[in-house]
Amino acid sequence: MDYAWFIPFCVGIVALLFAGFLIRYVLAQNEGSDKIREISKAIQEGAIAFIGREYKALTVVMVIIAIILAILGKPVINAGLGWELAVALLFGAFCSASAGFLGLTMATRSNGRTAHAAQKSLNDGLRIAFRGGAIMGMCVVGIGVIGLSILYFVFHGYPAARFLQIIPAYGFGASGVAIFARVGGGIFTKAADTGADLVGKVEKGIPEDDPRNAAAIADFVGDNVGDVCGMGADLFESYVDSIIATITLGVIGVSVGLMAKESTAWLLPMLVAAIGIIASIIGCLLVRVGEKLEMGALLNALRRGTFSASILAAIGSALLVWILDVSWGVFWSIFVGLVAGVLIGESTNYFTSYAYSPTRKISKASQTGAGTNIVSGFSNGLMSTMPPVILVAIAIILAFKFANFYGVAIAGIGMLSTLGISLATDAYGPVADNSGGIVEMSGLGPEIRERTDALDSLGNTTAATGKGFAIGAAALTSLALMLSYAQAVGVRTIDLLDFRMIAGLFLGAMLPAIFCAQTMGAVGKTAFVIIEEVRRQFREIKGLMEGTARPEYNKCVDICTRAALKQMLGPGIMTILTPIVIGIILGPIGLGGFLAGAIASGFIFAITMANAGGSWDNAKKFIETGKLGGKGSDAHKAAVVGDTVGDPMKDTSGPSLNIMIKLMSIIALVIAPALLGFAGLIH
């Protein structure tokens, strides 16, 4: 056994210990008044109830897939799979679900404490909200590297070729959890948000988080199950899939000439991830802000942490390359990924933050109605695809020049190396959003709400930035997995004269559009039921509008839960089955074309939807600061409509596409042994 593998394992333990330190800090803070505790507890109970029911459904799906993998390894069938892959799949699903559950639990315990702390100072509120989100980041990276290390310890005695068939199943399990968590959580959160917005703000003229709004608690619950648990599962799979793809490419020979020993190809990706974890921990400790209620000051506080972590990760990676006697081209590939990740985040920030002109133009367009708001926002989303696509293209070119396809794969690890703090800035957003709602519902003063609004506006921007980062990481990770698949089945080129390749390319390009139609349609159906329920309560509960009666919050939570769990199955099962069907019908060549089409199309769709939705949301927030007529104005009502259009785009369909393209790519790699030498039913 190579004892150097204990290094990433131990660093993973350090990440969990740091998460424990953050948990202890958060739980030591004052929970606030009885009213704050009551609201926070309702959010926590709703979130845990949803996740419990979702995980039960996921367990059934994952066990069925594991049984199929085990059966396909039997001597009679001999498809090259087997019980080892089934074990790895279930272990990956368990690790992903555990990270998501821990992050969700602590996010729902941080919201009320953040609301109470904001009464004292902005910095106190930011510290609790950020550390509450950082627990998710540390759990994801810590459990991710620990899980991969355990797989190595258990299966390292197998021949290298067999081990390289087993570890993708770990990523398959993580991706399987991610697709259902992201889609299910996204349907829940956006249906509740849409119902709360349209009935509360537009029809009744009350704040979104007004305690009279029956969908308010469901909206808060949705923020956590969608943007904490869902995003965590999304980036957990990106994190482990990028490591798996790099190990695979390194060991099967693509890294020849880049490093002295084959064992280095196994170990290097894990050590780069370990360095990123240490850098992220240091970056988290550097996040603090003064009392200025300015977006620039708040953004700079988070940038200080993320930029510091990136610089430390780059320095650590350089030292690692020097110590292991690896080609400096590998380091420059890691550096390219790091820089590309930071720049993609900044590009997303530019197109979605109301501190910049693109989003302010959408706010101005709202003055002439919802139609011009929607046109302006969608145009902004389309235009925002240019920088990330160019940055990823440049990263691919440079990384390939530096270190061949291995460079492309390890550039993805470079981009994700500081995931611990990148995910912290993302998971911070729902905590801040919840805290603002709790302040509103508990009747705290306008000065406190002003502070939490500042934290919430920052959270909208960091959430959008996090989605941009996740999309860029998904593109590189999916590409690395596709390259690993191509090496595994012997597909060396995309032959434009091969009908199977072209057919697969078009089918792959089509699938993201179908996926988006299903997920957005699911939000629309669920939102319709929620809107009718909120209207019914205003109509039938006497004294509700006057504030003398309490709405039935649990009914909205239950409606969202049942609908989300029912409608998440279709897109998820389609994503799992389609690459298998394409591989059987068109063979490995057709499946290669399918992956290429899906990755390219899914990348564009994901950026467009995430950034259009983020800019619509912040255009509304800009008006709510008092600009262009402020809350209640015609411009504000138009912006609310635009925001409800963007909600399922940015929090359901767009982010879920990241997982879709990664999941299909990892499935292709898992079934590669079964496709080797198989031409397809149509050839």
What secondary-structure arrangement, pairings included, does this model have?
Layout: H1 6-27, H2 34-71, H3 83-117, H4 122-155, H5 160-203, H6 216-254, H7 262-285, H8 295-323, H9 328-352, H10 357-365, H11 370-383, H12 386-416, H13 419-441, H14 446-489, H15 499-540, H16 553-567, H17 569-624, H18 634-670, H19 672-675
What does this structure look like?
By secondary structure, this protein is mainly α. The protein has one domain (3-675). Helix content is 83%, strand content 0%. It is globular, with a radius of gyration of 24 Å. The relative contact order is 0.14. The model has no long low-confidence stretch (mean pLDDT 84).
| Quaternary structure of the protein | single chain
Largest sheet: none
What structural class do you assign from the helix and strand content? Answer: mainly alpha
Order of helices and strands: HHHHHHHHHHHHHHHHHHH
- Characterize the overall form: globular
Terminal CA distance reads 45 Å
Overall tally of structural domains: 1
Give a quick rundown of the structure.
By secondary structure, the protein is mostly helical. It is built from 19 helices and no strands.
Keywords:
683 residues
